[in-house]
Design a protein that fits this description.
122 residues, alpha+beta, three-stranded mixed β-sheet, 3 strands, 59% helix
């Protein structure tokens, strides 16, 4: 399968799962704000890794809710995407935005300390 086709399938999977998550009835998922970052579907379309980020809510509870509603999400995905095989979904939490915020916070602290030292020297 060509890479451009896999790329389109990945993009459509992200788009559809983002919409499906709004309809999930599990309170652990529906009460949290979840952002689907990316999808990585294998070339044979049997498996898909779904990378998500939790902006509000308890991340561990959201993970449990996603695991318990995987069957529903996969069934809805099969109805929306016209594929011969619907991939099995594995949800993986993406923490890059949290890491970036932490690094930014550390850099701001360093800038504040430098400003204090320059004021003390003057």
């Amino acid at each position: 399968m060509a890479n451009y086709r896999r790329g389109r399938i990945n993009d459509e999977t992200v788009k559809e799962i983002s919409q499906i998550l709004r309809d999930v009835k599990d309170p652990r998922v529906s009460s949290a704000f979840i952002s689907v970052i990316a999808a990585d579907v294998t070339p044979d379309l049997k498996f898909a890794k779904i990378y998500y980020s939790v902006l509000t809510g308890d991340a561990k509870e959201v993970a449990k809710g996603l695991v318990s509603s995987t069957g529903y999400i996969r069934r809805c995905l099969a109805q929306r995407l016209n594929l011969r095989i619907t991939p099995e979904l594995k949800f993986i939490r993406d923490t890059t935005s949290e890491n970036g915020a932490h690094i930014s916070e550390l850099l701001h602290k360093i800038d504040a300390e430098r400003a204090e030292r320059s004021e003390d020297d003057e």
